[in-house]
Amino acid sequence: MALRKISCRVNGITVQKEIRSELRLIDFLRENLQLTGVKEGCGEGECGACTVLLNGNPINSCLVLAVQAEGADILTIEGLAAKGELSRLQQAFIDYGAVQCGFCTPGMILSAKALLDKNPHPTEEEIRRAISGNLCRCTGYQAIVDAVQAVSSNIPHAQPQPLSPVQEKDRLQ
Amino acid sequence: MDVLSVSSMEEAVSLLHSKRNAAIIAGGTDLLVKRARNKLSADPLIDICGISILKGISHEENCLRIGALTTFAMLEQELDAYPFCAALKQAAYEMGAPQIRNRATIGGNVVTGSPAGDGIVALLALDAKVELVSESGKRWIALCDFFTGPGKTIIKPDEILTALIIPQQSGKSCFYKVGKRNALAIAILSVAVYAEIRERKFETIRISVGSAAPIPMRALRTEQFLLNHEMEETAVHEAIRLIRKEISPIDDVRATAAYRHELAGNILQFLLQRLGM
Ligand SMILES: Cc1cc2nc3c(=O)[nH]c(=O)nc-3n(C[C@H](O)[C@H](O)[C@H](O)COP(=O)(O)OP(=O)(O)OC[C@H]3O[C@@H](n4cnc5c(N)ncnc54)[C@H](O)[C@@H]3O)c2cc1C
Ligand code: FES
Ligand code: FES
């Protein structure tokens, strides 16, 4: 079994480990670092549940080898609320009902964050394109787009639109 | 499985030469899907992502050099400086999804050699050449001679694709892909066209088609017909008829051959009209 040393920064902390060289980045994050906010859906790049930011850019951690992240800066969902307080984007996802089963949420938020970091005031189309690699089976996407839009608007604390009765029912179920 | 990371061409070339069962990994978006399906037997993998001279686009004498490790995200951002490459920019824009474009390289796209490869189809219309390097030296080959079958190319096991080379040109190009949806869609059919039109005549024309044959193909007979023809309705209609005859698509899970025949003509018409404007 081939072992290799890897050193990278994960959520701002320098990590050094000896790992099996064929390990995928997702396995390294989940199994070696217990960052289980990184989800595995398809394992083939189709669903985006495993999205993390690699040097600020969203990638599918199921399609990257851990050793390919040598020296890189990695951000997982755990890094967004590092001090125990949710980021504005995370809070907006809750306020707008953009989280249902939650499986897509970590990846979805990271894709949205990567967009907002580069383009703080995206159009709806730009938001939809930025999350086009993240599948959500629950929300129908509109609530997600609304949440991202709320954060991107200049209003410091965007007020969520009241949920429609159907959304409210979905949310409570 | 062992993974060896290299940072120079010398290292990469000599490792590939000495390790018989090795394979290159670049962005990994094809290779690691293959592995997930237990269809990868190569060992070790040689990770070439650290070879920085293979990254990015540079302008050389009379040509554009696109390093093999240039990602689709980079193509999308950096090709604005070369308007004649609009087809490649559009292909990059429509390829995969952000997470894929941030990793997937143009070199990997070409070596995978899928008949649906979006980068390949655009590069074929732009008359690209492939640069291959091994211990025994360097060679160049026209991209249209690179593919031999579905997923099969003439690259030798000890060769590295180092760059795609596109001649500087004065015309215009465009690309259109039909897929099941806008993101993460393998082409049902795609067409790229490069043309130089003077006084409404096609002085140069190249047409390439994806998902239309066992390999990504040039529609040579359709090109031949259009060359020196005036850009008018009857010529366009004849071109539509010819391209439908020239391709040999199959029925598969994404679409029927009949639908692909229909699409090829319709997309060609759309692109020719766009270039004519
Ligand atoms: C979810 C998903 C969506 C996709 N969507 C599209 C799409 O819309 N359009 C499209 O065209 N493709 C698509 N692809 C396919 C894939 O992303 C592309 O073909 C990509 O360009 C491959 O590049 P890579 O760097 O990831 O290659 P890798 O997976 O690293 O390598 C691919 C193959 O090429 C070889 N190789 C790579 N680089 C070199 C080199 N420099 N020299 C010699 N050999 C080399 C490898 O050994 C391997 O056999 C998609 C893939 C996924 C998973
Ligand atoms: S688990 Fe990585 S994209 Fe689905
Ligand atoms: S909330 Fe369930 S998949 Fe998105």
From TrEMBL, chain A:
GO terms for molecular function: 2 iron, 2 sulfur cluster binding; metal ion binding; oxidoreductase activity. Residues 4-80 form the 2Fe-2S ferredoxin-type domain. PROSITE patterns: 2FE2S_FER_1, 2FE2S_FER_2. CDD domains: fer2. Signal peptide: none annotated. Pathway: Alkaloid degradation; nicotine degradation. This is Aerobic-type carbon monoxide dehydrogenase, small subunit, CoxS/CutS family. It comes from Flexilinea flocculi.
Automatic annotation (TrEMBL), chain B:
The keyword Ubl conjugation does not apply. InterPro entries: CO_DH_flav_C (IPR005107), CO_DH_flav_C_dom_sf (IPR036683), Diverse_Substr_Oxidored (IPR051312), FAD-bd_PCMH (IPR016166), FAD-bd_PCMH-like_sf (IPR036318), FAD-bd_PCMH_sub1 (IPR016167), FAD-bd_PCMH_sub2 (IPR016169), Mopterin_DH_FAD-bd (IPR002346). It comes from the Bacteria. GO terms for molecular function: FAD binding; oxidoreductase activity. Residues 1-171 form the FAD-binding PCMH-type domain. Transmembrane segments: none annotated. Keywords: Oxidoreductase. This is CO/xanthine dehydrogenase, FAD-binding subunit. It comes from Flexilinea flocculi.
